Structure formats: C-alpha cells, structure tokens
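Chapter review: from sequence to fold.
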Amino acid sequence: MHARAYADGPRARVLGGVRRIVERGRSGRRASASEALRQCAASKGEVGSIADAVARLNALAPNADGPCFVATLPRPLAVVATLGVSSAQPAGGRSAPRLFLMLPNLVISVVPEGEGSKLLEFGEWIGTTRTIKGEVALPVTAQLAADAPFLRVSRGTDRTTCGTCHRQEERHPTIPNAFLSVAFKPAPGTFVTVTDLEELHTLCTNADDPGPRCAMIHALFDFGAITDGSFSPAVETFQGP
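The token string follows.
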C-alpha cells in the first residue's frame, strides 16, 4: 500500500561526485551473479507480508543470507536507498547504502555491508502511515517460527525496541506478539538514486568481486528491472532518535 515514487530531494553522490558512464542499459547488462544466487532466484515470487517473508526464508534455509533473499523478490522492484546512519540498521557507507525494497504491502530493508548487513528489517503497512515491524538476524540457517521477527524486537510483553523512535506503538489486535507504530521515511539529503546504485553494480561487475557487498548488488540488479521507489508523502520524515 502506498509504496510509490517519492525519492525526490537532494541526490547523494555515491562515487565522490564523479559520474561514471554505464555502458549497459538496465535490461541489457551482463549478468554476473553467482551460481548460488541464480539458484536462489529460481524461488522468485510474491512476498506480501511478514508471514510471507518468513515462509520464503524458511524455504531458502540453511542458505538464507541477505543476497539470496533479495534475489527471490519479484520484479520490477522499486527501491529507496539512503546513506542515513541514525538507525538500528545503518547504511554501511557510500558503497553500501541502506536499501528499502518497496513491495506493494511490505517494506524490507537491507544493507550490503557493515553492521546493518546482519539484519533483514520489515515494515508491513497498516493503512497509510503505520507499519507492523519486525526483524530477522542473517543468515537464517534453521527454520523460523512465525513470530520470530516480532520476538526479536520484543522488550517484554508491552513494547518493542522499535518503539524507542517510532511513536504510537500498540499491540496488533490479531497477530500474536506483533506491534504496530508510525512509519518513517529517510531524511532529505541522504537519498541515493537507482542510477547511482547502478554505478556500484558496474564497478562490482568490472571488478568481478565475489564478496558479500557485491553479492547484494548483483542480487538487486541481475534478476529484473529496478526502479526508483518511494514512500507516500503522508509518511513522516525520520528526524533521529
């Protein structure tokens, strides 16, 4: 719901202000994902809820790392990327921005490298401005319980770690152990465009880099169209904890 194109605002340069020419178009680039990622992508399909995400991770386990999961997401895929670090899942720098993957009813955030890369974070839309929140530690090597994303952020029976920043937290009336609260979008001046992300993909491809950061970039780009995404204008801007 309401995951549409709002990536307006000052563009954050990814490569030190130097524009590099991308020689291959988005539909004609040379794919260089690993065989393992290609096997993950064979499980591609719709993910419409946190419950669906858990089911997908369980199907991929014991090899469910971040890139493998991202390779299975449906395309075209809208992305909002940010260099923001005021989060429990901070960006890992200019070469590893935080990526919000904007599915119709669900926002999934990942980071290619750094502390933030150890998590998948979820926000399932309830109306226009609130989400059910949860997270999963990566990699997933064993089967997850249905409420695992909620228990990971739980702090007792009446609150979560998300409630520290996200206001109006309350228990979901029907989903066990789930809480919902106000959603935020990244601050202006931190955005990274898909064109900028594509430059990272070109660098990873040319370097033939097999590392986890480039694996995430290949998982994003090598399995279908990627577009600049958005949050609804009604969603508040994150101002920090």
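Two observations follow directly from the output. Residues 107 and 197 are 18 Å apart (CA to CA). Residues 1-29 have pLDDT under 50 and may be disordered.
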